[in-house]
């Protein structure tokens, strides 16, 4: 069985087009995580706060970020996909974030094959409302978990997101290659 973190390339044209492995679905409270030992997507927990994912959320294969996990990615979709779905995505922004004292940035991307997002190429193409909804979710989704604290630290452009992806690929190669 294929291990989506170790066996799948980061993308067909990294960092401009990457593969996002979906774990959590737009509109849901279930927090799924890919377990490379299964390998498969397992239910990690149900969010304690009464909030839902603002879009499909997952990770980039063959990446390792500063928090010791695969690099997180939020893919802006109109309709949810499914846990384990692989989406070709174009990075358009990055949201800086602190999760319990650890750097936990998020790549924001759009599906490469959805014409509704052809015009979205950089952070300035996202509406202030969309950015506020994403920030609000990540600032509050752990509020009711004992001892958990998150803080969003601002937005970066597509180039910064691509640089961070390359950093996460380099870290993966250093740790696991």
TrEMBL record:
Residues bound to substrate: 31, 45, 57, 141
InterPro entries named among the record's database cross-references: Pyrophosphatase (IPR008162), Pyrophosphatase_sf (IPR036649)
Record keywords: Cytoplasm, Hydrolase, Magnesium, Metal-binding
GO-annotated cellular components: cytoplasm
One GO BP: phosphate-containing compound metabolic process
SUPFAM superfamilies: Inorganic pyrophosphatase
Binding residue positions for Mg(2+) 1: 67, 72, 104
A molecular function GO annotation: inorganic diphosphate phosphatase activity
Main location: cytoplasm
Top-level division of the source organism's lineage: Archaea
UniProt cross-references to PROSITE patterns, sorted A to Z: PPASE
Family: Belongs to the PPase family.
PANTHER family for this protein: INORGANIC PYROPHOSPHATASE
Function: Catalyzes the hydrolysis of inorganic pyrophosphate (PPi) forming two phosphate ions.
Protein name per its UniProtKB record: Inorganic pyrophosphatase
